[in-house]
Amino acid sequence: MQTVTLDPSILILAALACFTGAYVQTAIGFGMAVIAAPLMFYLDPALVPGPLAFVILAMCTINGWRFRQGLELKLLAPALLARIPGSVVGVILLGLMSQQLLAILIALVIMLGVLVRLVDIALPMTRTNLAIGGFLSGVMGTSTTIGGPPMVLVMHGADMHRIRANLAGFFVVSSLMSMIALVGGGYFGQAQLLQAAPLVPAALLGNWLAVRTLHRVSKPVMHYGSLSLCTLAVIGMLINTLS
User: Fold this and answer.
1) Are 200 and 181 contacting, i.e. CB atoms less than 8 angstroms apart?
2) Averaged over 167-173, what is the pLDDT?
3) What 3-state class would DSSP assign to 97?
4) pLDDT tens profile 43-97
5) CA 66, CA 154: separation in Å to the nearest integer?
6) Structural domain includes residue 53
7) Would residue 97 be called left, alpha or beta, if left means φ above 0 and alpha means ψ between -120 and 50 degrees?
8) CA end-to-end span of the chain
9) What pTM did the predictor assign?
10) Per the domain annotation, does 213 fall within a domain?
């Protein structure tokens, strides 16, 4: 097992990645793992998925409480039920993948997230599509911490406030499912908790700042800036892992 204590420089950069990801996710309802995962994997592969999953759970809990009034549990039920077997499959994938394969999977999932943001695709929010989205979110979210793209694709055509509220609620439960699966699979324990603990305040600070400054940030800047950061992070991660 890799060392529990992170190098100070890595800790600072990982905290910055969590801060940025939390800011973006609070602003648009999606993006924490898409931004933070490749950066943290590049810094230290041990930070993904376990420690990052814990940070995401903490931040999603805050957002879920903030947007609880707009939550539609009946709408989300098929996605949440389907996410359970998806989480199991995600843990199985972790046991089968090398670090190189995990890096490639993370890259593919992130580029899917970028594509969802760039292309105006709106799937109907049927129970079947929500269930498929929930299952894929479970697979991807547990193995890479990036479970947002499938659900965003299904909800893409809805009102922004509805998307933000329901994604917030979905991510609370889904993040908890991933944590349970990771603990059960032996991918999260005391070592990962100690690595995650100093990163949680950075994510909560990003969340807090987003709530108070979002009205001052240009939407195009947020949109294309986060996509550019994702793309550069993926390229750097792949170069570092495959070289």
Assistant:
1) no
2) 91
3) coil
4) 998 999 999 999 999 999 998 998 889 899 999 999 999 999 999 999 999 999 8
5) 22
6) yes
7) beta
8) 23
9) 0.84
10) yes
